[in-house]
């Protein structure tokens, strides 16, 4: 079965890996190890024996943020397809020794995302909706979520699923990949905010995670809030300013 369009990796750009580990380790139950890349500092977050996220320390100053990577069977062809559909190639496909090939793209509404073509046999388990500490949901906040869905439909084959009305702000539009809901798209809630992807990580309790976020120096902007299906969500920022969200029990 084609991997194209499957969420496969979560990566945070952080100016301080130690501080990022000190926050997300206790918050999400992650442990960490160095990826062992020569001449490049890259950390790996582990949950339940799975590699679930990467910690990348940029060479130049930039805001701290999370990026979601989606799988590609032929990353070079998929990157060209992004351009054909009105997006941009920010970083052309290149090799990661021992891992595969990656690229950084920008959709037509300005949201950055990654592509990853793993080496044969390296599917990865970063996204698993049944496991805590893993990616559980992928949310796109966009200047034009209708146009964005058309872009990703043509790129990855995603299909519109349930639309949940949010009043004057528009719909919370779920999308499905290979018959399963894996995320949603919604209009930007704060004027002037650029389009962006937001990862949700699984936790035992949203309420407990909110308390832990504050204790560890982070900030909560929303939640806990119940969502269809009985789960609870919360959204916040880590001490370095990266936005993240969690989903789990109350």
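^ structure tokens above, recovered residues below v
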């Amino acid at each position: 079965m084609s991997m194209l369009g499957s969420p496969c990796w979560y990566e945070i750009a952080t100016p301080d890996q130690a501080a990022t580990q000190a926050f997300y380790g206790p918050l999400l139950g992650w442990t960490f190890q160095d990826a062992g890349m020569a001449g490049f500092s890259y950390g790996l977050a582990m949950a339940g024996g799975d590699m679930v996220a990467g910690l990348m320390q940029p060479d130049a100053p930039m805001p701290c943020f999370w990026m979601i990577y989606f799988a590609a069977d032929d990353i070079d062809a998929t990157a060209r397809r992004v351009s054909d559909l009105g997006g941009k190639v920010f970083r052309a496909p290149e090799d990661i020794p021992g891992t595969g090939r990656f690229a950084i793209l920008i959709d037509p509404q300005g949201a950055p995302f990654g592509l990853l073509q793993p080496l044969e046999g390296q599917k990865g388990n970063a996204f698993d909706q049944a496991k805590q500490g893993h990616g559980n949901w992928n949310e796109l906040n966009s200047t034009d979520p209708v146009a964005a869905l058309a872009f990703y439909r043509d790129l990855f084959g995603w299909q519109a699923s349930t639309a949940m009305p949010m009043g004057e702000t528009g719909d919370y539009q779920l999308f499905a990949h290979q018959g399963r809901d894996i995320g949603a798209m919604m209009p930007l809630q704060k004027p002037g905010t650029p389009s962006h992807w937001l990862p949700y990580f699984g936790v035992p309790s949203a309420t407990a995670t909110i308390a832990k976020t504050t204790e560890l120096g982070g900030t909560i902007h929303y939640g806990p809030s119940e969502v269809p299906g009985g789960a609870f969500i919360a959204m916040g920022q880590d001490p370095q300013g990266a936005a993240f969200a969690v989903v789990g029990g109350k």
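The chain has two domains: 7-118, 135-249.
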